[in-house]
Specification:
The complex is a heterodimer.
Chain A lengths: L4 E3 L2 E4 L5 E6 L6 E7 L5 E8 L2 E5 L6 E5 L5 E5 L8 E8 L7 E2 L3 E5 L1
Parallel strand pairs in A: 2-11
Antiparallel strand pairs in A: 1-3, 3-8, 4-5, 4-9, 5-6, 7-8, 9-10, 9-11
Chain B lengths: L2 E3 L4 E5 L4 E3 L2 E3 L5 E7 L6 E5 L10 E2 L10 E3 L8 E10 L6 E5 L3 E6 L1
Parallel strand pairs in B: 2-11
Antiparallel strand pairs in B: 1-4, 3-8, 5-6, 5-9, 7-8, 9-10, 9-11
Classes of the chains: A mainly beta, B mainly beta.
Chain lengths: ~110, ~110
C-alpha cells in the first residue's frame, strides 16, 4: 500500500458524459500529479499541483480540468467524454518533486 | 528540452539471461533519476533511484552523465521480473523551484521460461 488512494477503481460511462476522479495523497505530501495511461502507451503527464496551486501542465485536453483542495486531495474532471478517453488514470504524490513519487492504484475509465 | 527516452518497447529474454533496459535522458543540470516497475497493470512502484546506489531485486542502475544514460541491469533474469519498466527524471519546471517527473514511454520486459 503506497498510501495514495484513488476512487473509484473502475468507471464505465457513455460518450458525452462527465466524470470526476478523486485522489487522496499520502499524508504530508504536498505535490499531486495526474497521469493517463492508455493501452500500449506509456504514462502521459497531465497536470501537477503543489499545495493547492497548479504548478505544471502536460498534455491535458481542454475538456479536462483538475484542482487540489485545502485538505490536499485532488480531483480530475473529464467532460464531453470520447471513446479515446478510455484509459487508466493514475494519481501520484510526493513530498517535494525531487523525492520518490508514490502512485495510487489508478482509476480504469471505460467510455462506451 | 527535458526528455527521457526508452528505445525498446518490448524486450524478451530467457530465464537466467542478462537483462539491460536502456534509458537516455536530456536535461540541463543535475537530474534525479528513477526506475519504476509496474506489474500487470498494478500501481507503479519505485524500483531504484540513482542517489541511493543500491541493488533491488538484483537490479542495478548507474548514472552515466557523459552518455546521459541510466540503464537498468540484472545479471540473471527471473520469470517474476516480467513487468513494465519506466525510467523517470525529476526536473525543475521553472525558476519557481517546482519539480516534475518526466517518464519514458516504458519497456515491457518478458522473461521466457
Amino acid at each position: 500500500d503506497s498510501g495514495v488512494t484513488q476512487t473509484p477503481k473502475h468507471l464505465i460511462t457513455a460518450t458525452g458524459q462527465r466524470v470526476t476522479l478523486r485522489c487522496s495523497p499520502r499524508s504530508g505530501d504536498l505535490s499531486v500529479y495526474w497521469y493517463q495511461q492508455s493501452l500500449d502507451q506509456g504514462l502521459q503527464f497531465l497536470i501537477q499541483y503543489y499545495n493547492g496551486e497548479e504548478r505544471a501542465k502536460g498534455n491535458i485536453l481542454e475538456r479536462f480540468s483538475a484542482q487540489q483542495f485545502p485538505d490536499l486531495h485532488s480531483e480530475l474532471n473529464l467532460s464531453s467524454l470520447e471513446l479515446g478517453d478510455s484509459a487508466l488514470y493514475f494519481c501520484a504524490s510526493s513530498v517535494t518533486g525531487q523525492s520518490e513519487a508514490f502512485f495510487g492504484q489508478g482509476t480504469r475509465l471505460t467510455v462506451v | 528540452a527535458q526528455r527521457v527516452t526508452q528505445p525498446e518497447k518490448l524486450l524478451s529474454v530467457f530465464k537466467g539471461a542478462p537483462v539491460e533496459l536502456k534509458c537516455n535522458y536530456s536535461y540541463s543540470g543535475s537530474p534525479e533519476l528513477f526506475w519504476y516497475v509496474q506489474y500487470s497493470r498494478q500501481r507503479l512502484q519505485l524500483l531504484l533511484r540513482h542517489i541511493s546506489r543500491e541493488s533491488i531485486k538484483g537490479f542495478t542502475a548507474d548514472l552515466n552523465k557523459g552518455e546521459t544514460s541510466f540503464h537498468l541491469k540484472k545479471p540473471f533474469a527471473q520469470e517474476e521480473d516480467s513487468a513494465m519498466y519506466y525510467c523517470a527524471l525529476s526536473g525543475r519546471v521553472n525558476t519557481s523551484g517546482t519539480y516534475k517527473y518526466i517518464f519514458g514511454t516504458g519497456t515491457r520486459l518478458k522473461v521466457l521460461a
